[in-house]
Amino acid sequence: MSAKHLNEIIKAIQKANTILVATHVFPDADALGSQLGLSNILEGMGKTVIRYSEEPVSYLYDFLPDCEKLICELPDLSQIDCVIVLDCGDRLRVGKALEALLTIHPMIVVDHHTGHQEFGDLRWVQSGRASTGDMIYELSKALIAEISLDAAYCLYAAIVADTGSFKYASTTATTFTIAGALVARGVNPEQVATKLFDNFTESRLHLLQTVLSTLELSAEGKLALITATREMFELSGAASDDTESFINYPRALTSVKVAVFLKEKEGAISVSMRSKGSQYDVSEVARKLGGGGHRNAAGCKFRNGETLAEAREQIFALLLPLVEG
Ligand code: AMP
Ligand code: MN
Ligand code: MN
């Protein structure tokens, strides 16, 4: 744990006038909720805030307050006093703005990934913590900053998403205390859950139907694999981000210890992995394949033209000994 920089982070934020807040590529709800929540809180402190994202916000998360304030082009960086990077386990997760952002000092990094690879000037990293969202809550308290209802909503969504609705092993009493404080601030948990989870379009449900039919069980049911091919996207009319949460279905099988989802995208195969309990660390497997994540939720990408079968082979070579061991 490196909370060593927290006091310096607070001082740096207090001193800065214009702050750029960024997060990882293809941002999930924790990334966006933390980014938008913190940005809103910083504006409440009188700061000028720039919310940078490489891609426009996915329709899955466009219910988050202030998401229309995200910009996809970097502004003139000379006006920026400080950059804050959220939910990135390593520098490459920042995406194509990395080099430019590294020229801004101080760069503050707040993250909760297992095996976090340090970058930036001032870091607050708590590996194993449930979400970046609940760290932002704590940071805001340390800043003695007002948490608006919009910010509370963003942070609560971040926590719910990254804990799998308070189901994952990373969920602790602290997680509930912070989530409880956000609900006490006025967040409606039912509304957030509906926006996050009951958001299927018909084409997305059809894609799910097809993807689930690819289920392959190995190692006496301990390892599950599902696959989404390019043709499945074409036939269903669903978009790439429509596969969000599909991995939870094979994970839900009683026998399953590790679930894997392979998704064919233009020019790459993206891999999502989920595991149960402390025995199966999928972040270690993801790191061996150039990715990262957490003990129970990790991912990586095959970018060198590998076929689905080749990707499957490489993953199984690492996962079969893990689940059979
Ligand atoms: P996902 O399966 O996409 O929901 O990702 C699960 C976790 O793995 C997230 O916390 C991500 O931070 C991490 N992750 C996913 N893909 C990658 C990647 N290509 N490189 C590093 N970490 C990743
Ligand atoms: Mn994330
Ligand atoms: Mn996260």
Can you offer a commentary on this structure?
The structure is a single chain. With 325 residues, the protein is an alpha/beta fold. It has helices spanning 6-15, 29-44, 98-101, 132-142, 149-162, 173-184, 189-197, 202-212, 230-236, 248-251, 282-288, 308-324; strands spanning 18-22, 48-52, 70-71, 82-86, 107-111, 122-125, 216-218, 223-228, 258-265, 268-275, 292-294, 297-302. Helix content is 38%, strand content 18%. A six-stranded parallel sheet has the order 3-2-1-4-5-6. Helix 4 packs antiparallel against helix 5. The protein is globular, with a radius of gyration of 19 Å. The model has no long low-confidence stretch (mean pLDDT 97). One manganese (II) ion binds at residues 30, 87, 112, 131-132, 162.
Ranges where pLDDT stays below 50 over 5 or more residues in a row are none
The distinct ligands, each listed once, are: adenosine monophosphate, manganese (II) ion
Largest sheet: 6 strands, parallel
Structural class: alpha/beta
The 3D shape can be described as globular
Query: How many separate helices?
Result: 12
Amino- and carboxy-terminal Cα gap: 30 Å
Multimeric status of the protein: single chain
Q: How many β-strand runs?
A: 12
Q: Going across the major beta sheet, what is the strand order?
A: 3-2-1-4-5-6
